[in-house]
Each structure stands twice: as structure tokens, then as C-alpha cells.
């Protein structure tokens, strides 16, 4: 007969069974999950930022806006139903966003087990991203925890009266609590860098624009980042400098 | 000539090409050749060595047919074979331009271009198959250049008067090879091809007169192993690196072919080397290779040298009437588009006369000023931009502003292992495809024909002809203890042990460089009786010194690039000697082989059809090689002296 | 010119490596970077040392064999240039140059500067082709292809598979390589039937090989010697999304 036994390649090594992971657990699948959750979170952030500007209308309007959020959907739905649906949605989005980021980061670290001895500054289109996305995310996670304790649960806020949102804002950013304001602004800087890369990166991941549209998306991302940072920053700054009392 | 250099043996003949009208021969042969039942094909193992155009296409196609294929390459990936560097294009007799092309014209041009030293039957088949290659490659997704209407673009190339060359910017070889590579990887995934990268074939196993396997070294671990099969296909490329400096990749070598030759395979026409006229000149002693720029540059560039000898002025300062556009002057009909050998030799002549430019006076100008004025810089950039960029990277000079400097360099070897119409060598079961065989180009290859031949052999010819041989298989089982296998392995082990144990003091490269200089000086563009005899002596001396003084560091059981080189250079020594002997015995000039003693009054090559209308197939002999002549018969294209005036 | 080199030396895949310093005098500025290493190796051999192992073959910028991270940059400082085409005139007399191998989990070091890039072949095996067995093709003019598509396909197909994108990527990702092939084949009419299976298969093989994910930093495109742009990754993402949704 033939040469079966003698050929060194006759016995092909059995192919390793592929890991039982579907396309959505792949690097691109997770990245799409991260992008979609990120885009929705950005929309939330923009709405949140716009809502904050009610503070310039005075205590009553601001508190009415806060009250409106709690009573949204009433009397058709019980008190705070819509709010909690939105909150759960946000929690899920944040969980998806953070979980996919953690998994992808772990894979990335494993993909470069030995570091280079010499490093040159980044040359790519999003050269700040390497340095800002991950530590920025960590800052943001810490900030969100503080932010919830401060202005949602009021645990660390002097104003415990929940309906008085205006009072809580003025109290937390009062000049003598300047470290809170500084932390808030620092978190905003992190958020700005996060959005500057994250927004176009998400569009690139979901839609895959060509070069022309990618450049446009990058411009939009920068604009979104600036608007969000400025929009959020003027509230604490106004309080700290006494424009809002 | 002196009889001690070689002995003459019995003539050899191709017994496979059918008789009859030439356009029916390939069809006849496909019908007369025996077939292998599809169910039996998976019982047959075929080794393919090499993953260039000829190897990858053959391995993929044999895999698709259902044979069990083992494919080897020394590179780290099959995609890196040197076919990837071919720039210009691939010919096909599609006649898409309606400019009078046809299969017969491509056949005619190729036989004539080969200076009537190729086999008519083979060349005609090549021309027939050429059209299918384009279809095949387009189906694989090869991104050929296209017109605005979406149809394929063509250009005229290398002296052809019809536009039959298909191209993909200046990277046609890359795109064709990636097509073949992808087809190959598809078969790897399908399990029909076992691909072994970073493995080098070091010996051929012949048992009972048949080629039955190869001995390979795993270049990473150093492990020596044997692969046994029913047939062996060598697609291992050309041997231009015998010159050390050539446009070949650094790894290109003759070892697979030479090992087969030493085991009895005839080596045909080794002296036929092609010197490419448009390469970037050498810049210094550190030079490790020469870089070719596509011949398509000659479509728009004008070649000139200063009329005054040793003119050191900046080219822009040399007025029009002090420039010698020597190709246009000497060959008014073809001008800058004369065939490669003529363009190369003309460059050598003007440089030898002292008109050369650049370091050492070894260069001529290739000037695009007229083309830029005529077509505009954007058009020139669109056509040649990547070549211009490459030139600038290497030389630091901007060719839009200053003419390129070019000089000929060894580029392609028309010679190779002798094969019949079925691409079978004289050893049963040993097939040779692509540049590794002596093939279809005669004494000179036309531009854009190498890609055509490699793919023709691999996709369409070999898969159809090898079945006639394999129909007798599967052959008797062999194992590691068979005496032929043991002997082949021992030869490999001994050679490796020799190099590692040799108490030498000179590097492999230093010998290779010296060998290359001898070859270029005496067996390059112009050869003489006296020079070749001298070269043979020099090579023998150098070879003796090589075995005495070569130094190889490291171990056998590791990645050892010096050890790899040493084995290759050892074979180049023997090949180089045979090339000189072949060049010495062929006292005519033909194609890429120019014998100074055989030229016309105005310095053109003069063939001697009465005495040399044959293929010189050399058999290895311990004391001296044995010459077997295969007479060439021209029924369709009557030999004429080439004239490009 | 005089140079100080610091080169990664690692005697085998399992051995521990380290940076070793060498000094070279009298380097010609017309020499290519690899020719400079040739000169060093000739000297090392003469001194009885083991020469530096590095991958190289065509030395004209097309085979993709050469690699080397030079001063932290894959293929060195010159844009759109492979190491073999990089010439010493890009450096200055007295420069000190760090030379390291590609670093990626999917590209383990074999010896010194030589790495194993077979993971790229496995990605192609997982779908980076068009199934067109020899002999099955219709006439080449059967399907016209708009010139801009053919040109875009060519630009993506210009990838030489060197792995600089992976070496440059902070995540050791092979997306640019994979995207180039997905874009090339996806831009041709012949590539459409297998478009969905191709991208799913290749992405699975990519992850299986241990490459990281893409964070769109663009380092890959900046390092690519063939100037393949991020839009191929965009195409890859979009093709993947469509295929994954259809497969779900």
C-alpha cells in the first residue's frame, strides 16, 4: 500500500477544538458591546448635562425638574417607575461597558506579555487614547461612586432633603468644600478625554466609516467632549464663585 | 575545447510531447496521459518543495484534486517566496486590446525572444494556457489594474509590440502570489496540504530508480527528518544568487535542484542567465543585494549617458546635444524598449567605454524629464510612483528631479533542471516547475513571462501531467530503515557535521561574495573562452579554500543561519563551475549568453544554429560532467537572427 | 559613521533574553539597516561569537520577512519603509540604536530577533481566500469591477504580512492585518459569497491565536510600511457586525 505509516505528516495533529464562544465574545463582538453601551451612556450624559443647566433658573425650577424626573409617567405608572427603569438601564449599560472593557483589557495585556525596552511617543490618530482611556476610566468609576453618594443618596452631602436638589448642588460645591469641586473637575477632564476618543472609536467600531467619515467623526467626538465638559463644569464653577447661591 | 572539462554522452530527447499540429499537442497529451481515479488520489502523496508561484499553485491545485500534498518552504510563511517581488506584470494572449495578439503570436514572440533555444511544443502550451491563468487569478480576487469601464487594463511590456501584459500596479508578483498562497491556505485548512514552513530540503531520496522523498531540516529546531511520497515536485526557483549580488532574495538558492542533480537529474543550460537592465547600481562593499525596478520604466524613461567620458556634471547641466541616447541611436525601431539582454549589454558597453555615471562609473541615466513634460507629473506618479519612492529610499535621490541611475543586475536564470513535456526530469517521479526547470524561455526570457510560466506549470500543466506518472502508484512502502533513506540522511548529517566541526577562520559570506565576483566578471554579461577557463580555475581554488577555511558558529540543533548559508554556498560552488563549463562549451552567442568571440561586426550577438541548436543537459559526474544534447526542431518559427534595429 | 547598538539577544524560545551592547565603527550611510547588521555579524563570527539572528529575505520591501523594532518603532523611524529599505543615512554619527524583536503573545520569539508569525497564516486559513478551485473560473472580463473598487482592493491587498501592526499596537492586535484581507476580498464581486463566513472565521482564528483587541489608537496604521489605513478595520468591524447579527 501507500506511505501512510512512514510519512511524517500522515498523522495530522488533531485540530484543537475551538473554544465554545460565539462571535459576540470575540474581541470585536465585545468591542461592539462596549461601543453600543458607550454611545447610549454618552446620550445619557448629554441629557444629564442639559438637565443640570436648570440650576441657573433658580431653586424652584431646578427642584421642579428633579421632581419631574421622579414623577415621570405618573399617574399612569407608580411613583419613580420610569426613573428606576432608566436607572436599571444605566446600571446595565455601565455594567456591559465596564465588563467588556475589563475583559478586553485583560486580553490586551496578555497579548503583549513582554514589554519593549525603548518606547517612542505614540504616532497614531488617537495618540492620547493610549495614555488616557484606562486611567480615565478608573477615575470615572471612582467619581460615579462619589457622585451617587453625594447627589443621589446624599450620604456625603450636607443637604439630606432629597427633593431639594438645588440645595444639594449649592452645598456640595460651596467654596469651603473645594476638594469636591476639584475632584469633579478632574473627573470631567477624564470624561472629556474619554469621549474625545470613545465617541469616534465607538462609531468606528459599529459603523466602520471610511477615512473621510472617520475624520468627520473625530471632529464630532472632539465637539461632544468639549460641550459636555464645559456644560458640566459651569455648574460647580458657578457655585464655587458665587454666581449660583 | 579542452576535453577535461566535460565528456559527451548520449543525446536526450523529450518523448512526451505528441506529434502533429502544434495547437493540438497539449489537448492530445491531456487525453493520452493516464488519469488517477478520484478515490485513489487520496492514497497518493506528492511532495512539493517551494511555495512561490509554481509551488503554491501546484500544491493548492493538487490538493484540490484530492492528492495528499506535503508542501515545504524555508521561509517563515509560504507568502514570502520570492515570486512576491516580481513587479511588472504577467502576459496572456487575451487580445483584449484587439491589437493583433493571439496564442500564436505569444508563442512566436516567446520562441523568438528566447533566441530559438526553447522547445516549440512547451512554449505553445504556455501561450495557450496563459489566458486561463488570468481568468483563474481574477476569480481568486487578484486586484489587477482596471480601466474606468471596469475591465482589465493592459500594457505593452519588455519589447512586445502588443499590449498583453496584465498588472497590479508595480506589485503584480505579490498579488498573484497572494492569490496562490490563499488558495494554498484554503487547502491547508481543508486538510489536503500539509504545509511545513521554515524547513529546507537538503537531499533527495531515490529508491529503485524513482524519486521517493526528501530529507529536510527543520530550521528552527535543527531536526532532520524524511518525507516519503509517490512523487516529488521541485518548485524551488532560480539560482541567480550564485552571483552573490542579484535581484534574488537572500534566501534563494540552488540546493534542492543541485541535490537532485547530484542524484542524477540533468541540469540544462545552466549558463543562460538573464541580466536585467533596470536595477539600482551598487553603492559600496556592504552591498548585500541589488534591487530591480520594473522594466516598465523603460516605456516612458529615456536611457542616456554623457557623450564626454568621465563627465562629472550634474545631469541637469548636461545639454541635450552632449547626451548620448544610445539605445534610441543604435536601435531606432525599438529604442528604449529593446529586449533585456540587449539593453543590459549596451549599458555595459557604454560604461566600459568610460561614459558611465555614479559610483565607479557603473551606471547610466534613465530620464523621465520628457515623460513628465509630456504626461504631467501626476500621470507619471500614478504609473511609477511606488518605483520612484523605492528608488529614493535606496539612493536618497529624487527621480522626479534628477534622472535615475540604473545598471544591469542578474535577475533570472533560464537554465535549470531538465524536464520533458510533462515537466518530469529524467529521474522518474521527480517533477520540476517554474524557474527551477530549464523550461520555456530558451536563452532569454521576455518580460512578464516568468509569472506566466510559474502559474502555467503549477495550476494547469503539472496537475494534468503528473497523473500519468501517479497512475502507476501508490508505490511500494518505504520506511526510515530503507537503505536509500538511511544513505540520504547520512549525507545530510555528514555535511552538517563537517561545517560545524571545520576549524576555519573565514565567514561563509566572504566566500560567497568572492565567488559572486568571479561569476560576474567571467560568466556575467559577456563571456570569453579565456575568461571562462580562468574562472573555472579560480572557482576550484576558492572551493578548496572554502572547505579548508570556512567557519560556521553555533550548533546543529538550533536556528543557525550560518549553517543554512554554508550548505547553500557549497552547492553554489559546484553550480558555478558547471555554469562556466556550459558557457565555455557554447561558443555561440544566444540570448542571455553572449560570447565575445561570436558577435557580428556591429557587436550584436551571433548565434550558431548549425552547431548549437540544442539544449545542453548536463549529467553530474564525479570527475567531469557529461553533456547530453537535446536537439531543437523548429517547425513553426524558423530561426532568424534577431534584429531590433 | 559610528554607532552604539543595543540588541535583544535570546538564544532560544525558552531562554531568557537580554539587551546586549555592541559598538560599530565605519558604517556606510549608504548601507541599509540590514547590511549594517550583516557587517556586525561578520565581525561577531570572526570573533567566534554567535551572530545575531534576524528574519529577512527579499530586501526590497515586499516579502514581509524583515521585522525589528528600532528605537521603539517597528521598521524604524522612516514612514512607509520596511527595515530592509531603511538606510543608515537616516541615522546620525554617534547614535545609539535599540533593536528588539516584534513583541506579541501571538508572535513568540524563536531566537534573538526572529519571531514566529505563523498565527497570520492561521488567520488566512480560517477564511482569507476566495474558493475558486483551479479551472473553475469564468472569463476574466465576465464581471467588470469599478476602477475605484479595484484600486481600493489593491491598496488593502498591498499588505505584506510583516506584523508591524501587531508590534506597534498597544494591545498586540492583528486587526489591521485581518482588516486588510477582509477589505481586499470584500471589495471584489468574487469575494461576496463568502464574505460573512470569512470574517467570522478569521476573527475567531485571530482571537484564538492570542492577539488583543482593537482600541482604535491608530498605532498600527502609523507603523504600516504599506500605509494601510484604519478604514480597513472599519470595514472589518462593519462586516463582522452584519455577519454576527445574521449568524445570531
Automatic annotation (TrEMBL), chain B:
Compartment(s) where it occurs, according to its Swiss-Prot or TrEMBL record: Cell membrane
Key words, A-Z: Cell membrane, Electron transport, FAD, Flavoprotein, Membrane, Oxidoreductase, Transport
Membrane topology: Peripheral membrane protein
Name of the protein described by the UniProt record: succinate dehydrogenase
Residue span(s) of domain FAD-dependent oxidoreductase 2 FAD-binding: 46-451
The Fumarate reductase/succinate dehydrogenase flavoprotein-like C-terminal domain, residue ranges: 512-644
CC per GO annotation: plasma membrane
Reaction(s) catalysed by this chain's protein: a quinone + succinate = fumarate + a quinol
GO biological process, any: anaerobic respiration
Protein family according to the UniProt entry: Belongs to the FAD-dependent oxidoreductase 2 family. FRD/SDH subfamily.
Annotated catalytic residues: 340 (proton acceptor)
Flavoprotein recorded as keyword: yes
Cofactor(s) for this UniProt protein: FAD
GO terms of molecular function: electron transfer activity; flavin adenine dinucleotide binding; steroid dehydrogenase activity, acting on the CH-CH group of donors; succinate dehydrogenase (quinone) activity
Enzyme Commission number(s) from the entry: 1.3.5.1
Transmembrane segments: none
Main localisation: membrane
UniProtKB/TrEMBL annotation, chain C:
Domain 2Fe-2S ferredoxin-type: 3-103
Cofactor: [2Fe-2S] cluster; [3Fe-4S] cluster
An example molecular function term from Gene Ontology annotations: metal ion binding
InterPro entries in the record: 2Fe-2S_ferredoxin-like_sf, 2Fe-2S_ferredoxin-type, 2Fe2S_fd_BS, 4Fe4S_Fe-S-bd, 4Fe4S_Fe_S_CS, Beta-grasp_dom_sf, Helical_ferredxn, SDH/FRD_Iron-Sulfur
Domain 4Fe-4S ferredoxin-type: 150-181
Matches recorded under SUPFAM superfamilies: 2Fe-2S ferredoxin-like, alpha-helical ferredoxin
Biological process annotations from GO: aerobic respiration; respiratory electron transport chain
Alphabetized Pfam families for the sequence: Fer2_3, Fer4_7
Keywords: Iron, Iron-sulfur, Metal-binding
Family: Belongs to the succinate dehydrogenase/fumarate reductase iron-sulfur protein family.
The protein's name in its UniProt record: Succinate dehydrogenase/fumarate reductase iron-sulfur subunit
Organism: Glycomyces terrestris
Top-level taxonomy: Bacteria, Bacillati, Actinomycetota, Actinomycetes, Glycomycetales
